[in-house]
Each structure stands twice: as C-alpha cells, then as structure tokens.
From TrEMBL:
Recorded name of the encoding gene: Lrrc43
PROSITE patterns in alphabetical order: LRR (PS51450)
Source taxon at top rank: Eukaryota
The keyword Chaperone belongs to this UniProt entry's keyword annotation: no
Membrane-traversing stretches: none
Signal peptide as annotated in the record: none
One GO term describing the cellular component: cytoplasm
InterPro entries given in the database record: Leu-rich_rpt, LRR_dom_sf
Keyword annotations of the record: Leucine-rich repeat, Repeat
Protein name stated in the entry: LRC43 protein
C-alpha cells in the first residue's frame, strides 16, 4: 500500500474483525441490545456466549489467538468486534481507534484519510518510505507522532499546521540536514512537546539548534546522538547547561552533579569547535604481502621491483 489509509484497510483485513469468533455471530446478542427482556433469555442453541468467544481470542493455545507481540490496539478491536460489533461497522471503526501502528508496510504517503480518525492520539509510522508529511492531514488530537527510519528531509510541510497537543515527535534515522531545519523546532510549532528524537540525521549546527530548542519550555527528553554535531568535544556539557529543564539526553539521565559540573558552559560558545579529530588504530590486516620478504632481497639484485599501493577510505 502506498498510503496510510490503504495500509489501515489491509490491517483491518488482517485482523479479521468479521470472521469467527469476531463479528455478528450471535444474533441474539444484537436483539438483546434492542430488547432488554432478551438479555434474561438463555443463549439459543448453536450460539456461543460472548465470554466463550472472548476466551477463544485470549487463550494463547487457541487457533484464533493473536501473536504475543501484537499491540493492545489489536486486542481491543477484536474484543470490541465480539462484544459490540455494531461499533466497528462502516466508518464507525475510525471513532474507536486511538492508536495506529503501521510498521514496515511500504507506506509513502500520509494522506488526508487520516482525518477520519477523530480520536487518534498515537500514530506510529516507522520503517516506511515517507519523505513528506503534510500537517493538514494529521488529526488535531494527536499526541505521539513517530516517523523514525523514513526519508524525511524537510520539516516545512509538517510544521505548517502541526497538531497543537503533540507531546512526542520521533524523527530519528531520517535525512534532516542543518542548519535549515532548526527554525522548525520552536515553541511556535510545538508548544506542548515533551520528547524529541532527532537521532542519526545530518544535523551540524549545535548553536543554532540549541537556540531554537531553548524555546520549548516543556521539553524534557532529547535524543541527538548519531548526528555530526555530537562529535563536538563539549557537546553534552553545552546541551546540559543550555537546556536546564532537560531530564534525559541521549537516553542518559541528567543528574544534579552533572549539571553542576557543566555549569557556565552555555556562556562559552567559543569552546564549540566546528571540527573534530578521529583516531583510527588498525590492529590487524589480512591478505597483504609480507614486507619482510622484500627486505631479504640482496642489494643490486636484478629482480623486478614490485610496489604495492593501498587506499583506505572512512565514511562518516
């Protein structure tokens, strides 16, 4: 599927919400909702009680059981399909879903069909092929947006009308390059952001990034590891001192003694250099001629002189 909507429809088919033991198998249950007297009647022959149908879904040895690693959303939808199948008919299913996880399904487009999810709070679209996210297609109720392992290289469309209540934004392992993207990471766009993951992109301007992130008054968790700017010697200390409300940086908790250790570093931007030194030590090389063999050749030998040239390349 190329869009999130298409992937969601495929997801529903995979759950089998209309297949036994889900769906409208118990006609008496449907009648019971219309007639209170029917609730007191015994379950007709050939029908299972709702409890028995739920047991078929929950028992790990049942052929209809979901795999252990399935999401809570999967279990919820299937149980709703047993207890109240009318809630999932047609477009009503979009009113039930609060968390949508579509991982590694080849999604390329975040389409406007997402606006049908009027209660959606969590959207996980990791490991797809998304390069552009239009904020006008995102539900305003969204609190968590995870887009790691995609191809997002520009935040302009995402920041046009971002969800105002968003608390976590995950953009790790994308193609963000500085310094043009830092301007989109301010309180004007993300007033309630608590957690931000920008790891393993190509961000280089630490000073510019910090000046924008300092406006995010609710930010407590920040991940920047894997960017070139993380190679700066004073990287962690400068961030710790510049963002006093930060609690966790690169998955490491910031304790009071560390904050005291780096106190005042934010007022010394001259310590931040735009270069870094990497020392590479080669322990062992295989498949190369032994240089000792050439040293044993006698001077003035008429034998041919053989020269070997090697090129070693490091990619960062």
């Amino acid at each position: 599927p190329g869009s999130v909507s298409a992937a969601f429809q495929e997801y529903l088919r995979h759950l089998g919400l209309k297949d036994f033991p889900c769906g409208s198998w118990n006609k008496s249950c449907l009648n019971a909702r219309r007639s209170p007297r029917a609730e007191e009647e015994a379950v007709p022959p050939g029908e299972e009680t709702p409890e028995a149908l739920l047991e078929l879904l929950r028992d790990q040895h049942s052929p209809w059981a979901l795999p252990p690693d399935c999401s809570p959303q999967d279990r919820l939808l299937r149980e709703v399909a047993v207890l109240a199948p009318e809630l999932l008919r047609g477009s009503r299913v979009f009113q039930v879903v609060k968390s949508l996880r579509i991982l590694d399904k080849g999604v390329e487009e975040v389409d406007e069909g997402l606006l049908r999810f009027q209660q959606l709070e969590e959207l996980i679209l990791s490991a797809n092929h998304i390069s552009r996210v239009t904020s006008a297609h995102l539900p305003r109720t969204l609190k968590v947006l995870e887009l790691c392992y995609n191809a997002v290289g520009d935040l302009q469309d995402l920041c046009a009308q971002p969800p105002p209540e968003l608390q976590h934004l995950g953009l790790g392992y994308n193609q963000l390059c500085g310094p043009s993207q830092e301007k989109h990471l301010t309180v004007d766009f993300w007033p309630n952001l608590v957690s931000l993951d920008l790891s393993f992109n190509s961000l280089t301007d630490l000073l510019g990034l910090v000046s924008q992130l300092s406006t995010l008054q609710s930010l407590r968790i920040l991940v920047l590891q894997g960017n070139p700017l993380a190679l700066i010697p004073t990287y962690r200390g400068f961030l710790v001192d510049s963002l006093p409300k930060l609690s966790v940086l690169d998955d490491i908790h910031i304790w009071p003694d560390e904050r005291q250790q780096f106190h005042g570093l934010a007022r010394q931007p001259e310590l931040i250099r735009s270069e870094a030194r990497v020392v590479v030590s080669i322990g062992e090389m295989k498949g190369l001629p032994d240089p000792k063999a050439f040293q044993q050749m006698k001077g003035g030998s008429e034998g041919p002189v053989i020269t070997y040239t090697y090129c070693v390349t490091y990619e960062f």
